[in-house]
Amino acid sequence: MQYMVCEVQYGGRITDDLDREMFKTYTGLWVTESVFTPNYCFNPNVTEFNYHIPDAVEHAKFMEYIGKMPGTDGPPIFGLHPNADLTCRL
User: Fold this and answer.
1) How deeply is 43 buried, as exposed, middle or buried, from its count of CB atoms within 10 A (0-12, 13-18, 19+)?
2) Are 43 and 51 within 8 A, CB to CB?
3) Rounded CA gap, 85 and 90, in Å?
4) Distance of alpha carbon 65 from alpha carbon 53, whole angstroms
5) Fewest CB atoms less than 10 Å from the CB: which of 13, 61, 64, 78?
6) 53-86 burial by CB neighbour count: b if 16+ within 10 A, else e?
7) Could you tell me if 77 and 47 are in contact, meaning their C-beta atoms sit under 8 angstroms apart?
């Protein structure tokens, strides 16, 4: 699954080597067998929003969860220091 995501589906669209390395790192962390456990949390250290896979099968429940997601993500969800947002804006 990691190979399909990193190399086949998205890898060919990434042109920068450092971006590709970062993408592979995130895929290695988040595309694992543990995502199939109920209410898997992608980053339990982030307290702003609980990014998890809802334990549901109905389309409406997934849409409800997606509607609750924040419009923008802060750097901590990506494992970065909060100052990364300031650096990016500069």
Assistant:
1) middle
2) yes
3) 9
4) 9
5) 13
6) eeeeeeeeeeeeeeeeeeeeeebbeeeeeeeeee
7) no
CB 52 within 8 A of CB 66: no
pLDDT in tens, 7-39: 887 767 888 888 888 888 888 888 888 888 887
The Cα-based distances of 67 to 38, 44, 57, 63, 81 in angstroms read: 20, 20, 16, 6, 26
Domain ranges of the chain: 1-31, 39-90
Token pair in block for residue 6: 């990193």
pLDDT of residue 74: 82
12-17 long-range CB contacts below 8 Å, 24 or more apart?
none
E strand or H helix at 85: helix 83-89
